[in-house]
Write a structure and sequence with these properties.
4-stranded antiparallel β-sheet, 6-stranded mixed β-sheet, mainly beta, globular
Length: 653
């Protein structure tokens, strides 16, 4: 394929969008349309181009201009519900990586993509965003109300949000002001005017108490355990075999002298009469409502509770009412209460491998009657009569009959649908799109990353079965077609976008893969290929990360040695620098003692404009939780070793 720049056509259209169509003459007329990039319109101040086949023929380019509508900044009103309805978080794949911004109901970008992640706007008109791995708050105009400085910000509850940083947890108000300077080991959101916190005592154990909305410790940290307030009470643990229900002033209303008492629901509390014994339910006053007979007992909700009767950590779940009568027989591997008097009943897809997931049917939670036997592989809670589900092929809504709802959309793949104001957000196969209530797509995540004409990176999807999903890159614009084919074949192979079968019972793991542009300058493109392999039944999966460095002019893939002068002792020098960082920099205190023995000649690496980065795989020199230990080495520190006249260095200098 050939790409032709159209920048001359765009002159004088700085405030417009340009839409292009390419037609080929078939000998009779201009009847063959050549598909172009997926975006309907591109800005006139971007690098414009069209794509035509690399074969002789007559081609015609039609283009039309459409004025850019001014970015719509919502006024500073108290009508926060309007703000939340109009703006929706959306991810964009850019040459700087994936960035999140916000779109309006028509799918137009209102807040430019500049965040590593962005959440829905809350009722107070604020949204949580992440930048440089820190969380902050913005308003609907995109202005920072709280600069990204916290490691975590929880959604607002009762006018307060829990935040944390290196010092600990605290509360902020809607202006971003900390309501107390104190820091806590843990802090939960405000519920009924009380926020549960924990402090470590002098003996090293944690004790729990409660703050009010002003950050005052109204109930000191004296409880061994504690829960949130609900309906005017909270359950706390006073000591060994002693639980209590307290009011917001800390007055003890009832006590329960048992080894375990669970949080209240519908006026009943799960409990164990003996250590490691079976579970039953107590009334609020401490009298026994249902005798201990279950191996697991979840809190009551809407008059029913999920219980388990299987011994030896097995699964035989059912649903009981407040009299202990079985509404759904205890026969299922899973039972999920979905709200609105509906439950999902799950049985293993593969009976001999139950850890591989369940298939679900929908039942009436009042009568236990199964409403729909169509096997679902994922279910979500009901909201206004609809629940998002997916089966072996599609993601869609079901109604309260358990059958596919009339409400569109129906999307191929596995994921969830959720209501975002007047739009429907679809997160399916790890990609995001938005639809209106009629099922028309108003926005979708882009599949083309424009670098610099003629270069771009296209996203391709490989999903041979439901347990294997890879998005892999295809580079467009490499002049030599044979080199282009070799480069893209290698990228597909490195991405593991090949070889997987139909799945079913023969595949004993799941795998997901993705890619991002890590760095692009001059002729050098650095792509990050990431993956995650999860053997079914394992405690966790194993992530992988490969950086490929490609010269777009000649298609060459560079290795670490290509950066340095021939014969230079770069391995020894880099090994010493990394060793020094491990020894002296506190951020690397997690490295296992005596495990680092230096780097290898083909050490995994990546580059950017200012530095070389060397990294290690999980478990190689540090615990799994440390991820990929990475060491930054500025070029200034190793310039004597770098081959500045070499092809690798010259490809981006």
């Amino acid at each position: 394929m050939l790409r032709i720049k159209l920048n001359e056509l765009a002159k004088g259209t700085d405030n417009s969008l340009v839409q292009t169509e390419v037609w080929r003459w078939d000998g009779i007329g201009w009847n063959e349309c050549i598909p172009q990039q997926e975006e309907d319109f591109i800005r006139a101040d971007d690098d414009l181009f069209v794509t035509i086949p690399a074969e002789a023929g007559l081609y015609r380019v039609d283009y039309s201009k459409k004025p850019i509508e001014a970015l719509y900044f919502l006024p500073e009103l108290d009508d926060s519900e309007l703000r939340a309805d109009l703006l929706h978080p959306a991810p964009f794949k850019l040459k700087e990586g994936t960035r999140w911004g916000y779109i309006n109901n028509e799918g137009r970008t209102v807040i430019e993509p500049r965040y590593e992640y962005a959440e829905e706007f809350q009722e107070n008109g604020l949204a949580i965003v992440q930048r440089n791995n820190k969380s902050g708050l913005i308003d609907s105009s995109g202005r920072e109300k709280v600069r990204p400085a916290y490691s975590f910000i929880a959604p607002f509850s009762e006018g307060r949000a829990v935040v944390s940083d290196a010092k600990g947890y605290t509360l902020i108000d809607e202006r971003g002001k900390q309501v107390t300077a104190a820091r806590y080991d843990y802090l939960n959101s405000l519920h009924e005017g009380r926020a549960m916190f924990s402090k470590q005592s002098t003996t090293g154990t944690s004790r729990y108490g409660y703050l009010d909305a002003q950050g005052k410790e109204v109930l000191p940290a004296v409880y061994e355990d504690a829960g949130d307030f609900m309906n005017g009470t909270a359950l706390v643990k006073l000591g060994e075999r002693e639980f209590a229900l307290i009011d917001p002033q800390g007055t003890v209303l009832h006590t329960y002298k048992y080894p375990f008492v669970g949080y209240p629901g519908d006026g009943l509390l799960a409990y164990q009469a003996s250590e490691n014994g079976k579970y039953g339910y107590l009334r609020i006053d401490g009298s026994i409502a249902i005798e201990p007979q279950y191996t697991a007992a979840l809190p009551f909700s809407a008059g029913r509770a999920v219980i388990n009767t299987a011994e030896n950590y097995g699964n035989a779940y059912g649903l009981i009412d407040k009299q202990g009568k079985l509404v759904v027989p205890a026969l299922y591997y899973e039972v999920q209460q979905l709200g609105e008097d509906r439950v999902a009943l799950g049985t293993p897809v593969y009976p001999d491998q139950p850890y591989r997931g369940s298939r679900y049917v929908i039942a009436d939670a009042v009568t236990g009657r199964i409403l729909s036997t169509h096997p679902l592989l994922g279910v979500n809670n009901y909201q206004n009569g609809l629940a998002s589900v997916f089966d072996a092929t599609d993601t869609y809504f079901i109604d309260k009959s358990g059958k596919k709802a009339a409400q569109p959309p129906v999307i191929a793949g596995s994921g969830t649908l959720s209501f975002s104001g007047s739009l429907i957000r679809a997160d399916v196969d790890q990609r995001t799109a938005y639809y209106d209530r009629r099922g028309n797509q108003v926005w979708k995540q882009n599949g083309v990353i424009t670098l610099r004409p003629p270069y771009s990176v296209l996203e391709k999807k490989y999903k041979p079965n439901r347990d294997y999903l890879v998005y892999y890159p295809v580079i467009e614009g490499i002049a030599n077609s044979e080199v282009s084919r070799e480069v893209n074949d290698k990228l597909r192979s490195l991405s593991l976008a090949e070889g997987a079968g139909t799945g079913e019972g023969t595949q004993d793991y799941s795998y997901t893969g993705d890619f991002a542009v890590s760095f692009f300058r001059k002729n050098l493109l650095v792509l990050e290929l990431s993956g995650y392999k999860y053997p079914f039944g394992a405690a966790h999966g194993m992530p992988t990360r490969i950086y490929v460095h490609i010269n777009l002019r000649n298609g060459k893939f560079y290795a670490l040695r290509d950066l340095f002068k021939p014969g230079s002792k770069y391995v020894a020098k880099l090994s010493a620098i990394v060793g020094k960082q491990i020894a002296n920099d506190p951020q690397y205190s997690y490295v296992f003692p005596d495990t680092y023995k230096g780097i290898t000649a083909d050490q995994p690496f990546f580059v950017d404009e200012e530095a070389l980065y060397l990294y290690f795989a999980p478990y190689e020199i540090a615990p799994y939780a440390a991820g990929f230990p990475t060491f930054r080495i500025p070029y200034a520190e190793i310039m004597g070793l770098i081959s500045t006249e070499g092809e690798f260095w010259q490809s981006f200098h």
